[in-house]
Amino acid sequence: MEKNIEIDESGKPSPWCVYVLRCSDSSFYTGVTNSLKKRLLAHGSGKGSKYVMSRSPFVVARIIGCRDEHEARSLEYRLKRMSRKGKAALLGLYEAPVRDPDGDNLDPDMAAHGLMPVPAARRRS
What we know:
Elements: E1 17-23, E2 28-33, H1 36-44, H2 50-53, E3 58-65, H3 69-81, H4 84-91
Antiparallel strand pairs: 1-2, 1-3
């Protein structure tokens, strides 16, 4: 988990940040908050957003500290407009492994990225 803290003119860290969650289906959710702990607890309890609630559990993929609310909302907007591939590349997030038609993983480094292979669905004969 990464967090860049910006110090504002008063000498205090800004509470505004953009966060990216990786959901159970490997999709990304991008949000903005000025109270990260409270927001993550809300997501965890199913009250944060319908999107995350329907794709729980999740892990925090990135936290990016911002100077103020305007910067945080602008960054969130830009990230949400990006393709999944572009967002993953920009943030250095691991993309889902490529699978062959039989459903076997072709990526030998999955475990190194903390992801375990998902067994292929059984086909009926």
